Amino acid sequence: KNWFAKNQELKGKRVLVTAGGTVERLDPVRYLTNDSSGKMGFAIAEAAANRGADVTLIAARTTADSVAGIRVIHVETAEEMLQAVLSRYEETDIVIKAAAVADYRPVVRAASKMKKNDGRLIIELERTTDILQTLGERKKGQFLVGFAAETEQVEHYAMDKLNRKNCDLVVANDVSKEGAGFNVDTNIVKVFGQEGLVEEMPLLQKREVADRLLTLIAQRITHPAK
Ligand code: CTP
Ligand code: CA
Which parts of this chain are annotated as the region Phosphopantothenate--cysteine ligase (predicted)? Predict the structure, then answer.
């Protein structure tokens, strides 16, 4: 394949990428979040744009550098990310959910800064909506790619997420391995499809992981199985 072909592979395709860690506030100055840097999602957005796709990136808290030529929409909470994704879902061809979305949020978000007391503080949390699962339920021809951050039984949990959330591909990373996952420039991933393991990648720069992932996606969109 020549350079031009690679650059045109996703021409005319609308791609939605989510990146970063969502932020769930307790009060005006305190919040719950996670170690996601957003680098994987930004690299994916860039790789998709390099192939000619029309890319929108929905970004929660991130330390990644912005990318030229990509529309970035900033959000804070899981709920805001859900709304931002859903409002664009119908006209989207490919969704890649690299964001680390909070599973829980505080039931109460205090309007003013919480004051300390003697003794313990118990914070009650409630479930957020699973964005990817919602997209899976409402799928009408979109190609859906999820991520799975695991520390054990990677294949088992990745396949479970793929089936439960109606994904076309799941990118699993064992975040207990050094050089994989949160807050580093590299990743070690296994990509699963409905048929099982599709590609096992060695330790690579996130940029390279993104490029290989987009190659897989482009192949599967132009030559669907069955
Ligand atoms: N995800 C999502 N909305 C949520 C939680 C997760 O869209 N509220 C997405 C993530 O963006 C990711 C995939 O679901 O693409 C898997 O996230 P992960 O945290 O690995 O799995 P969970 O389903 O949340 O299960 P658990 O955390 O219990 O392993
Ligand atoms: Ca989770």
Answer: 15-226
Of ligand 1's listed atoms, the one at least distance from the Cα of 145 is 15
pLDDT single digits (tens) 50-67: 999 999 999 999 988 888
- pTM beyond cutoff 0.80: yes
**182 annotated to bind ligand:** no
Q: Is 149 in the pocket of ligand 1 (CB under 6 A)?
A: yes
For 93-136, the pLDDT digits (tens) are 999 999 999 999 999 999 999 999 999 999 999 999 999 999 99
Residue (of 216, 180, 223, 179) closest to 198 by Cα position: 216
Closest atom of ligand 1 to 148 CA is: 20
Atom 17 in ligand 1: which residue has the minimum CA distance? 148
173 belongs to the catalytic site: no
